[in-house]
Amino acid sequence: MASCTSSLAKDVGELKAMMKAQNKRIDTLIKHIKEGCEAKEEVPPESTMSNMNPYIECLNPDILYHLALSTDTTDFPKMFGDVRFVCMGGTAARMLKFANFIMKEIGLKMNSGVKLKDLAEDANRYALYKVGPVLCASHGIGGPSISILLHELIKLMHHAKCQNPVFFRMGTSGGINVEPGSVVITSEALDGQLRPVHEVVVHTVPELRPTKLDRDLAQELKSLSDPCHDGYDTIIGKTLCANDFYEGQSRLDGAFCSYTPEKKKAFLEQVAGQGVLNMEMESTAFAAITNQAGIRSAVVCVTILDRLESDQITTPLEILKEWDSRPQTLIARYMQKVLFDIGDEDCSGSESCDCAGGDQAQPAQEVQPAQQAQPLEQNQSIEQPEPGDE
Ligand SMILES: O=P(O)(O)O[C@H]1O[C@H](CO)[C@@H](O)[C@H]1O
Ligand SMILES: O=c1cc[nH]c(=O)[nH]1
Asked: Pathway, per Swiss-Prot/TrEMBL (predicted)?
């Protein structure tokens, strides 16, 4: 009964938020109608990506090889110009699951019988789904894999003239002295030598790029967790990013092992003593590359074991699946907040708003009509069923 009531309350809250967003949009449209045709058509500004390679402008077309997208066959501003969130995770299945989940969470629908289309399927490398303002991409395993994807996604953002997109990595990790199933939001990503850098070797010379993540974003994400209600902890701490799952993470169960169990224990205790809560394999590249492009970003990973207890992952698949969705739930809450939480706007002068001015909460950014409870439009990942398909 209690859970039914709280689920209804959540639905009502979401519907109210969506209606407020609709009302705000209607106000804008009414204003435009009043201003009539005198209003000039807005030219989209350039993207907000910083430090872009100047030679990109010489590429005609620019081919994003690993995504099978090219500027001569795709209208990037039309197709991707509305993207506000880019979510990345290791596997295609996770990202498809997230794309379907976030669709519902932000009030979008597809007709029954259609399914999401992988926009990068022709390249057979990464999966790419678009759902309204959310782009979801799988990045594979390790720094080189996520680095290639980030180069191409940032160029995609640049060509599409995207404005201030926020990037997330939603992953799994090995916790250190952390209850399995907990969610860790990374405060600082450290490499295998415990340096807060991502090393890129250019012309034989190692360049060290800082792995800066957005502190405010991490705090805001944490504020959206609710350990009592969620049933698990969400904590902020350092993440060790290794170049390998086995020896790179001091496991004793790889094909080779050059250290003793005592050395392993000492290493894990040493890093835990330095504030490291978990280990995974992409956070340094993700943090450094998004930082270089001036993109706000966060790494949110569930811990699937406590490395002080074991190396092998023995948790049943069903439980792992549920844990896998925990970072997704938190990130979805953030997106809902940004898209719909417009409770404190002063709507006293509104022509369509029925609230008596200001429940608390953050000002929300405007939601485009195509992002509200409507069928997805043409620039989304929609695949029509084949004749005869269910
Ligand atoms: O769960 P994902 O996103 O794949 O991330 C973690 O899992 C992989 C290793 O199993 C590494 O890529 C590590 O970073
Ligand atoms: O122990 C773990 C679990 C998931 N991913 C990792 O990189 N390490």
From this structure: Pyrimidine metabolism; UMP biosynthesis via salvage pathway; uracil from uridine (phosphorylase route): step 1/1
